[in-house]
Amino acid sequence: VEVSGCTIQDTGIGLRVNKTLNFNFHENTFTNTLTGMFVMPPTLSSVAHAGIIKGNTFSNGIKDGVYVSKYLNLVITENLFDSPSIHGVDLSINTDGAEVSFNSFMGPPSFAGNAVSSASKNVNISNNTIKGAFNLGINLSGANNNTVSNNSINGARYGLTANGNSTTAGATISYNDFAGPETGGITGVSIGFLKPGVFHHNTLSGYNLNIDVQSGATGWGFYSNNFIKSPLGQVNAKDVQGTQNKWYDPVQLKGNFWSEHPCVDNNDPLGVCDNVYALDADSKDLYPLSLPVK
Fold first, then answer.
1. Nearest one of 233, 24, 71, 250 to 258, comparing CA atoms
2. pLDDT tens digits for 86-122?
């Protein structure tokens, strides 16, 4: 099924898909709809689905851009989501193997909604631009083994939250830029009850707290990140799990750049501070970096 070049406006659901496994929806415009696209296959099965949502515009009063449940291997790419008040993209349960990439998400006039939410397995969220007054940029809630990479999140109160339960696997979060709003963000990244995971080559700035590692988030490795402390922030990072996480790469023996750390770098290897950075009494970066990671 192919739908393209349509303008759909002033309705509850713009395009509803519930009995189609293969489709291509591209270059359509959705305005003033409660939900732009609602996607759900007839049955949940191992049959390879092949859906593409590409080059569409969702704007002007929309609440949910794309809502998906139980659809496998969906590709959502190169779309514009302008001021969604609830979700830009909402990947509900069993929307496994989805790709959300190269989309633009523009925040609503006042803080509200999420740009991308995932509650599914093996989802790739990459190369998206998320800008403006979202309450939350990316939300991984009960998601298994998601990859979040090369995204720019600028202006959201909370950049990313990742929370799971005793059965959910961790995530790989890398090469993202998290920047809070001009008035100051609340938390850049929050991780809770998700294990294990890797967090590397990210830059966080403009938040009262750049990263908050909560109870149940164990087996994580944090390295080669830039943590730029806000003048308004009390602390740069928190980790209640202590020694159960590592704030450095145990192979390369390199940690993270901490903007407020009074680094002393007189001994080899140069570029790694001689003095440890302590997040708290039992969470330490043993190899903090003297310069920001490029």
1. 233
2. 999 999 988 999 999 999 999 998 999 999 999 999 9
Q: In the 3-class helix/strand/coil scheme, how is the chain assigned residue by residue?
A: CEEECCEEEEEEEEEEECCCCEEEEECCEEEEEEEEEEECCCCCCCCCCEEEEECCEEECCCCEEEEECCCCCCEEECCEEECCCCEEEEECCCCCCCEEECCEEECCCCCEEEEEEECCECCEEECCEEECCEEEEEEEECCECEEEECCEEECCCEEEEEECCCCCCCEEEECCEEECCCCCEEEEEEEECCCCEEEECCEEECEEEEEEECCCCCCEEEECCEEECCCCCCCCEEECCHHHCECCECCCCECCEECCCCCCCCCCCCCECCCCEECCCCCEECCCECCCCC
Dihedral sign from CA coordinates of 234, 236, 237, 242: negative
pTM equals 0.96
Q: What's the pLDDT tens digit per position in 47-59? A: 567 899 999 999 9
CA distances in angstroms from 229 to 83, 179, 212, 259, 281, listed in the order given: 29, 11, 13, 6, 19
